[in-house]
Amino acid sequence: MSESNRNLIRDGQLTVDEVQCFDVNNEQAQLVPPDDANWMVTFDTWVAHRSLLEGRQFPVAVFIPSDADFDDGISQQVRALCQASIAFIAIDFPSYTDGRGYSLAQLLRNDYQWSGELRAVGDVMIDTVYYLARCGFDSFLIKPGHDAQLALDALHTFSDTYQKSYRQPIKSATT
């Protein structure tokens, strides 16, 4: 595996992101992806086809955009998602200056009790991973062109914290 392809930080190690994004508009009229490993669907697709996606041999991951609004009308679906058997939840960061994903992570961890993998995707850069981890993210898809090893090292930027966090940043296998 090429070092340049290892842009996913997961379980405190660098690995290759093998996830395929399912686009219902481009998948030959299929409602859901095949029951194979490494598929990710949008939250809207998961809500619309929940009965087809639950109980699969290979659980799908679910992508939540940064502008998702967990209001009363959708909170029951979010609660059901957090109780379902899925691979992970990915939250999009369309821009590193967009902080809505931090709030969504806190809601998922604290209000909806999501205890599974929470992945930051999109404009995820070296200097944000530490703060993402403090808000509950435990895997990070590093933006192309950024050094994923430096991002992994950045999880140890600070040794002491003063504010409350969801959990401590991941320790790499080398520390």
Question: Which features does this protein show?
Answer:
single chain, 175 residues, alpha/beta, eight-stranded mixed β-sheet, 6 helices, 17% strand
What report would you give on this structure?
This protein has helices spanning 43-48, 50-53, 72-83, 100-111, 129-134, 148-154, and strands at residues 8-10, 13-15, 20-21, 39-42, 61-64, 89-93, 118-122, 139-141. The protein has 175 residues and is an alpha/beta fold. The longest helix is centred in the middle third of the chain and has 12 residues, at 72-83. It has one domain (3-154). It contains 6 helices and 8 strands; from the N terminus they run ββββααβαβαβαβα. The relative contact order is 0.16.
Which helices and strands appear, and what pairs or packs with what?
Blueprint: E1 8-10, E2 13-15, E3 20-21, E4 39-42, H1 43-48, H2 50-53, E5 61-64, H3 72-83, E6 89-93, H4 100-111, E7 118-122, H5 129-134, E8 139-141, H6 148-154
Parallel strand pairs: 3-4, 4-5, 5-6, 6-7, 7-8
Antiparallel strand pairs: 1-2, 1-8
